Amino acid sequence: MNTVIEFRKLNRLPVRLYFEEDTTIDDLIKHEASWHKSCHLKFNKCSLERAQKKRDLQDAGPSNEGPEGKRRRDRLSRTKNICLFCTGSDGDLHECMTLEADKNIREMATDLQDTAILARIAGGDIVAIDGMYHLNCLTEFRNRHRSFKRRIRNVDESKMEEKKIKARAFIELVNFVENSVEEDVFCFKLSELRHMYADRLKGLGVQMEVNKCRFKAKVLGYFPQAQVLNDGKNGMLIFFTKA
Known about the structure:
Blueprint: H1 2-10, H2 25-30, H3 37-41, H4 45-60, H5 67-79, E1 94-95, H6 99-112, H7 115-120, E2 132-133, H8 135-182, E3 187-189, H9 190-203, H10 212-222, E4 226-230, E5 235-239
Antiparallel strand pairs: 1-2, 3-5, 4-5
Helix pairs in contact: 1-4, 6-8, 8-9
């Protein structure tokens, strides 16, 4: 009831009330009064603070309004009574009532890099700028964000799978070299090893160009006892002791 009294003082009731100013809580209980939850939410403290700020701005008058106040008033005029998502004013528009809604919409718009929506909510939290929306538009926006997160997740999983395949193919190559050295084969053409590695990757479903320099560095990193010598045509991986 306290917020109702304050709204009455400001002459800014969010919805029409069907009881007199002198009605008490006991009167409401006695008559088994009820209300819609959506109507009750419009009398929260955030809405009251917005109403008080608007009243203060009006009392200050246009002559006392600085550049920041003018920019804020312009932003309010651009966002009030239009949908944050489609900018349409037709149909049923719903008001953003909680800071949690502001947080969620802001995070989704940031993830999607939706600069149009980010520009509309740049003036402050959505509750403060009287942000409104169509239910269908909000649902579509959430679905778009859900699809985006799913694509990102699929890309991450694909990259992880590719890393596993690369590790598997390289370990198989290492096993081949180690087994060959055990059989007293101490010299390998790097180009042949690189092609073996690339062919195995292809067989496991990863088709890629294997960089010569990075491949050589990776092989030498695994076999520090080996050296790479050039016979004039080919780089040769030489073992002077068994791996």
